[in-house]
Write a structure and sequence with these properties.
Number of strands: 6
CATH architecture of one domain: Beta Barrel
Number of helices: 1
Shape: elongated
Oligomer: single chain
CATH superfamily of one domain: Copper binding periplasmic protein CusF
């Protein structure tokens, strides 16, 4: 009887080990790209791209986005040294601007 119960448990354990564990989530490449935001000051502007710079804790971060015909611009036309927020998606060819939102003007530096 003891031998029979050990054999049944052994068979159940070996069958359980044969079934691979599968994740319920789809592979990351199948998910659509998520929207991201980047806010800062325009430092370079051309027909096909816009470059934004921002300072976080004293460290400058520069980001360049591709501008296409599908890119929506809200609040006017971006100019150098204007504050903007860029909604973008990352792709194989880099980051593409989906929407550019102009913010208030950059205040002049304070004189001390």
């Amino acid at each position: 009887m003891r031998f029979l119960s050990c054999a049944v448990i052994g068979v159940l354990l070996s069958v359980a080990g044969l079934s691979p564990l599968c994740s319920q989530d789809p592979p990351p490449s199948a998910q659509p790209p998520t929207d991201q935001f980047f806010a800062g000051i325009v430092t370079a502007l051309s027909e096909g791209s816009i470059t934004i710079t921002r300072n976080v804790l004293g460290k400058p971060t520069v980001h360049t986005f591709a501008v296409t015909a599908e890119t929506m611009v809200e609040g006017g036309k971006p100019k150098l040294k204007s504050k903007v927020t860029v909604k973008f998606v990352s792709g194989d060819n880099g980051d593409r601007a989906v929407k550019i939102i102009l913010r208030g003007a950059v205040p002049p530096p304070k004189k001390q």
